[in-house]
Structures are given as C-alpha cells and as structure tokens.
Amino acid sequence: MGGRQGRCSDRGRARILLILCTVFGVLSVASGFYERGSNVIAIKDEKQFKKEVLNSEFLWVVEFYREGCGYCQLLTPEWEKVAANLKHLVKVAAVDTERNRQVASKHYDDANPIQGVPTIKLYIPSGKPGKPRVMTYQGERKAKAIVNFLTSYMPDHVIRLKKQDGSYDAWMDDKSTPKVVLVTDKSETSATFKALSAEYKGRVRIGKVVKKDTETFKLFGPENLPALLQLVEDRKGNLMALMAYDFSKGKTYSKLSNFIWDCEKEWKRERKKEREAQGKGGDL
C-alpha cells in the first residue's frame, strides 16, 4: 500500500515536472527574442510584412533569425542597440524564420535567398508601392557599424533650394501643399530630417537652404542656425514665416514632427478660410 503510494507520488512528481517543462518550453518559444518592451518590431506574418515593410516611405531593416542559433543570440543585444539608436528614423524589425517560414522563404529578394541566419536585409523605398529595393547587409555585426550603414541608405526627400538653378522659385510656386524650410550651415541632410521627409512625403514639402548658397540664404538670414520656418507668400509675393520652431526646446524627432504637424494643420485652416471668403464673395 505504502509502496504503491510512493510510486504514485513519484509518478505524480514526474508528471508535474514534465508539465512544467512543457509549459516553460512553450513560453520560451512564444516569447521570442523581441517582444514587449523592445524597440525591435517583431514581424508576425506575411500580411504584416507586406503592409508595413513593402509599402513604406521609411527604410526598413529586417533581421531573419532562429532562436536556437548561437550567432543570432550574439547579435540580439547589438540589434536592440540599433533599434534604440534609430528609433523613429529607421524601422528596425526581426523575423523568426521558424515561426514565420512563409515570410522567411519569400522575403521578396529572389536574387539573394537566405542561406543562413542571422541574415540582415534592407528594404529601401523605390517610389514603386509594394516594390522596395532590397539588399543584404554584409558588414560588421556591431551596432555602430550597422547604424552608420543604415543612415547612409535612408531616403532623403528634403529639397535643396537655390535661386540660381530655379529650384527655389519652382518650390515656392507650388501651392498644393504646406511648406517648411530648414535654414542651416550643413550641406548634408541629417538622419532626423531624412526621416521627417519620409513621414510627411506628399503632405508637407520640406526644403533646405544652406548658408553657402548666399543668394538664397540672404532671403532668410536668420541670426541663429539652424532655423525651421513655415513659409508662405503674401498677395504681393513677399516672403512670410507663419511659424518658427524654437530649437532651444530640443531637436528630438518627436518635437520636430509635432511642429511640422502644426504647420500642416495651420496651412489647412488658412486654406479653409480662403475658400470660405471666396464663397461669400461669390454670393454678393
């Protein structure tokens, strides 16, 4: 009797241990490398991949990994650093090749199949919806090297404005969207403004006036650089700045984006007033 109880108890403990091992194993697989609290975007299925990666104005970079891969585990902390450093600027994502075999097998780069993990691929907007340019990253697997590489491939829709080549006048003559202009002493567009130009593409035109382009710069001539201004022309063609960003408040992506969003909203409000005034004039 006691022996049977002892054996039953042993069996019970073994069964409980087996259940616990199974549960923790499932939780481990379910958790993945990049879940809640991570800046890395975990791609769950092909629908998400098509919607977010293939149809984006932002640069996407995707790590294809497998949880049991030692090299993938070594890359994980570096990948987290990349995502943190490029937050809001580049979409840093990951695909578990075992749980998302369909995405991993397609990955929309037939010329360069995934032959091992981890594999890092860039999805660069091409101007053709659903058809980004895809390339495989072959460089050093350290956060600094990856970040430097990615920022060089970010799409740049900021237009450099010059009086002498007509680009400034053409830009000002286009009244279809609101405009903001960055006045700066730097020729290269920063990663922050590249990302802003991607976010607001088709909604707000972002121009850039560089100090060494003296003929254009003298139209603005702000005392402090950089300056970010919302531009309009009055009925006489005189240049006006409706709003100006205060850089003393910081240069974070979120604050600059909020300013451009306010400019867009103010522009729409002014256009509505103009239409209403024209409508009233037509009734008289």
Report on this model:
By secondary structure, the chain is of the alpha/beta class. Helices cover about 45% and strands about 20% of the residues. It has nine helices and ten strands. It has helices at about 1-30, 45-55, 70-85, 100-105, 145-150, 165-175, 190-200, 215, 255-284; strands at about 40, 60-65, 90-95, 120-125, 135, 160, 180-185, 205-210, 225-235, 240-245. Helix 3 links the parallel strand 2 (about 60-65) and strand 3 (about 90-95). Helix 3 (about 70-85) crosses helix 5. It is elongated and about 70 Å long.
Q: Which features would summarize this protein structure in a list?
A:
5-stranded mixed beta sheet; disordered N terminus; about 20% strand; alpha/beta; about 280 residues
**Beta-strand content estimate:** 15-25%
Ends apart, CA distance between termini: 106 Å
> Measured on Cα atoms, how large is the radius of gyration?
27 Å
Main pleated sheet? 5 strands, mixed
Number of alpha- plus pi-helical segments: 9
Give the CA-based shape. Answer: elongated
Assembly context of the chains: single chain
Q: How many β-strand stretches?
A: 10
The secondary-structure element order is: HEHEHEHEEHEHEHEHEEH
Task: Give the low-pLDDT segments.
Answer: 1-10, 16-31
